[in-house]
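hey can u run this one w/ V47 bound, need the structure tokens asap thx
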Amino acid sequence: MAVLDRLETLAPIREKVEAGERLDFDDGLTLMESDDLLALGELADLARRQRGGGDEVYFVQNLNLYQTNVCRVKCKFCAFARTNKQEDAFTGTAEELVAEAVEQYEISKFTEIHCVNGENPHVDLAYYAEGLRALKQALPDVHLKFYTASEIHHISKLEGCSHAEVLQVLMDAGLGSMPGGGAEIFAPRVRALIAPGKEPAEEWFDVHDTAHRMGITTQCTMLYGHVETYEERIDHMLRLREQQDKTGGFLSFIPLAFHPENTVFERRGFRFTTGADDLKVIAVARLLLDNVPHVKAYWIMMGLPLAQIALHMGADDVQGTVVREKIFQAAGATSGTEQKIPELVRFIREAGRVPVQRDTLYNELRRW
Ligand code: V47
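ok here u go:
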């Protein structure tokens, strides 16, 4: 009976998916409240294929770099940030940044650098532009996917200029596209609880809106598994969908599962998310975000074995080789900091999919 009940709840949503109709808030909530994981996954895969998705699963050969972990915001979910006075605080120079990148480039010829930092009140726009320029000069063919909307907003406040002005300076210095962090959960109730010092959602959206209109593509994320409700998750996804309708610049959506270690929440007894919740978020995101081209099952977040299953539930990207990841390691990630290409290829193949190495903008580089 319980199974029948569940099938009946999802039936009207299946009809909408089959008819190519857009799902609404209530549909999203129904999906999130369902624990029929297989049905959710199958529906998400159907929606993905109906919108033109095939068997390809993407990854990028990349490097994670961090210029500074000094941060003025005390986000309760974060284990990476430091104050300037803490012993392990760092603020690297452009020379140090280039040295680290070049050293790694000699080992693995990555095509992208992914860089996210704290909101450091002690450095200015010129510091960031100098870092980008130096990297571009040293590694001209490498795409620089740098700075979350939160960082851009922070720099604009420090400099007293607009988001567009900051982005223009960074673009001129070599910025190629932007990561999707800083989104957390948009609902003010949650932001006040987990990140009271962070910019409001409207500023995050203004940065992405501005970037898209300037031709800069970006990613979008959702940090889930802490104090948010199902309603707040759906609201978050629908706000992203609305933005995408306007500007179309999001390349992918990356759900970020909350890692509690070394955070305020660990002391309050919060636990890691479960595999069932991780898969559900992937499936619901794929169903609701009908206008965002890709959904990532980021292996650092969920481990490669679970990411394999997510590839059957709406995801079509596992992010990348990564190398030197720090934010999730600080908060207890156990899946390592690097995957070699043969390992990514093996996992994608064994999931019955076709591994495609891409560049940051989803141009195909190699079909494995
Ligand atoms: O905004 C921080 C998240 C973000 C924790 O665009 C945490 O491809 C879980 O921007 N547990 C910053 N998540 C990193 C970021 C990012 C990450 C991965 C992919 C992309 C992309 C961008 O990391 C923060 C926050 O949402 N985060 N601490 C934590 N303890």
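Residues 230-247 form the longest helix (18 residues). anyway lmk if its weird
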